[in-house]
Design a protein that fits this description.
This protein is mostly helical. The chain contains 14 helices and no strands. Helix content is 72%, strand content 0%.
Length: 416
């Protein structure tokens, strides 16, 4: 058998060395050296053409060897990577996102309103409830109830004007709001509601002074004209009172504050019930038990609306209900519920006792204050924590991405 040629022998040893380095078994065919040796024997090996061919074959074999080495190295690296994956090592993951923001600031710019706005919410509702109480006393022939409602309405709307001007900073800004009427803006509509309600409530309250004016002369003429004018003004104030009681709830829900915006169906209900309860409290405090029948009925209706709305905002909103249950807002709302229940119970059970009626009226007024402040501070707390902004947004995005609908009680509110 002819010994293998020098080129084929070197190529075979080179492949064996590469195979040993990569850890694979050499797969060298025995036919290639024999073929190469046969060709060498046939050609004689001394012709210049044969030497040139041998040199070309040696260069080509070197290039093929280099390519084989690179491929073997890459395969070994890939195999090592797969081995590490199969070894059970846990892949690195991105750490869970934390609800933080730049420089520790909230995602939303929180409301700049202070306690005077919460007080404005209460006094506006008290004015509306007192006007409704006065209209009830006027239509049923209860002068003590009518007088108490009209005077309280004027005092409450005057306090509302003070709180509103204090928040605006300059009284002229209220005048500027009257230059336009925009039905889609709760602030614009609220300005016009106050403009219509305030004078009517003022005239109705002034009409109560007709009894102390002299009966003769110019003042006597004014004394005779005031009662019918006061009746018309009182009915006009009562007609605008529901809008006055509820527009502040729409105003809060129209903001980007999460717990206010998501509670857009409940806030007007809560504020309407609170207004009725506060008006009933005025009647129970100022009127004798014999004339306090409309006040007791208002107390029951207002308490039902207020308790229903407060229960909804504390249970329906999911994560956004937390601010109404925790810390100061939660304490305020829980205390408001207890006082509301106690006030209604006293109004129904103590119908013949002036003391029990006065205590019930005080409890209803205090409950209205606590409810308004609890709703106010609950919204402020939701704006400060980025979690209440980010998590609901992610839920809505995920629901749209997967084509799923949120539950009916977690429906996305209309865009502001």
């Amino acid at each position: 058998m002819t010994p293998p040629g020098p080129v084929g022998d070197r190529f075979r040893r080179f492949r064996e060395r590469l195979a040993a380095e990569s850890g694979d078994q050499p797969r060298v065919s025995d036919e290639r050296p024999s073929t190469a040796s046969g060709a060498q024997a046939t050609s004689g090996g001394d012709h210049p053409t044969d030497r040139g061919t041998a040199g070309g074959n040696e260069a080509a074999s070197s290039r093929r060897g280099d390519l084989t080495a690179r491929r073997s190295t890459e395969a070994g690296v890939r195999q090592g990577r797969r081995g590490r994956r199969r070894g059970g090592g846990e892949e690195l993951r991105v750490p869970e996102a934390e609800f933080t923001s730049y420089y520790g600031r909230p995602v939303l710019k929180g409301p700049v309103w202070k306690w005077d706005v919460a007080a404005y919410l209460f006094t506006g509702g008290l004015a509306a409830g007192s006007s409704l109480l006065a209209a009830g006393g006027q239509l049923t022939g209860r002068p003590a109830l009518r007088r108490a409602g009209r005077v309280s309405a004027l005092a409450a709307v005057s306090a509302s004007a003070v709180f509103l001007v204090k928040d605006l900073g300059r009284p002229a800004r209220f005048h500027h709001m009257l230059r336009v009427a925009k039905p889609t803006s709760p602030m614009s509509m609220g300005t016009w509601i106050l403009t219509a309600y305030g004078p009517a409530a003022g005239v109705a309250a002034i009409a109560e002074a007709a009894g102390v004016l002299p009966r003769h002369g110019l003042l006597g003429l004014a004394g005779r004209a005031l009662p019918p004018i006061g009746h018309a003004a009182g009915l006009l104030a009562a007609g605008t009172a529901p809008a006055l009681a509820t527009y502040t709830g729409v105003l809060l829900a129209d903001t980007a504050v999460p717990s206010w915006h998501e509670a857009y169906p409940e806030l007007p209900v809560i504020f309407a019930g609170s207004a009725l309860a506060s008006g009933a409290g005025v009647g129970l405090l100022a009127a004798p038990p014999a004339q306090a029948g409309p006040a007791r009925r208002m107390a029951v209706a207002g308490a039902a609306l207020e308790l229903y709305g407060a229960h909804r905002v504390e249970t329906r909103l999911g994560l956004l209900s937390e601010p109404y249950r925790l810390d100061r807002p939660g304490r305020l709302l829980r205390a408001g519920r207890l006082l509301t229940a106690g006030g209604v119970a006293g109004a129904l059970l103590g119908r013949r006792s002036r003391v029990v009626g006065a205590l019930s009226g005080t409890a209803l007024l205090a409950a209205s204050v606590l409810t308004r402040f609890g709703i106010f501070y609950g919204g402020v707390a939701s704006a400060r924590d980025p979690r209440y902004t980010v998590v609901p947004q992610r839920e809505r995005v995920e629901a749209r991405r997967t084509g799923m609908e949120l539950p009916a009680d977690r429906a996305v509110p209309p865009a502001v």
